[in-house]
Amino acid sequence: MLVYEYMPNKGLxxxxxxxxxxxxxxxxxxxxxxxxxxxGLLYLHQxxxxxxxxxxxxxxxxxxxxxxxDFGLARSFGGYETQTKTKRVVGTYGYMSxxxxxxxxxxxxxxxxxFGVLTLEIVSGIQSRYSVLEKAWNHYKEGKLSEFxxxxxxxxxxxxxxxxxxxxxxxxxxxxxxxxxxxxxxIMMLSSDGQLPEPKHPGFYTESSCASxxxxxxxxxxxxxxxxxxxxx
Length: 233
Fold this sequence. Notes:
Layout: H1 12-16, H2 27-47, E1 51-53, E2 58-60, E3 66-68, E4 75-77, E5 83-86, H3 98-103, E6 105-107, H4 108-124, H5 132-141, H6 145-148, H7 159-172, H8 183-191, H9 207-219, E7 228-230
Antiparallel strand pairs: 1-4, 2-3, 5-6, 5-7
């Protein structure tokens, strides 16, 4: 049984993807949520007693402070582990990194990918299952990032921060895990105005391909025990 403090604003998706509630989220509120999620993940990755890798599930308190929840799905690292492989993939496919959804390989960079998807959703108001990565990437290549952002956010005072957040989101969802920044770098990039590196192609992984892979695996498995294998980086 999981016990949480009361969250009057429920889940982030309940506020972000439902009108007229979404119209109340101005840029300062959205950036506050993005920054809070980033700092929460940084704590889990670097400052907690065990390094925790966590699927994306965000609740909001009365002041719209984001709370990372559902630790029943979290995985922990110990010692000097940097990457682990599992046969039991859990979570929501739209937020999973390609290496985790396809091969069961997860690391802190898996969380960075999930954070990138969330950031792009928060800025655009588009849910992941509606190809938010593909739309963001196409707008970036065409030099039209401002058209990807929620129309209510493109204001003179916030355009730079909005476009910068989109580019940071794209850096987080790059296909190669080694190309993605860690969370401390993400926070630095979000809070500074220095030049950002150019993002590479994002990692796309569809739910149908994941389901197909899972069904094949299920045909060759006869127990429900989770097996964790160690692999070198």
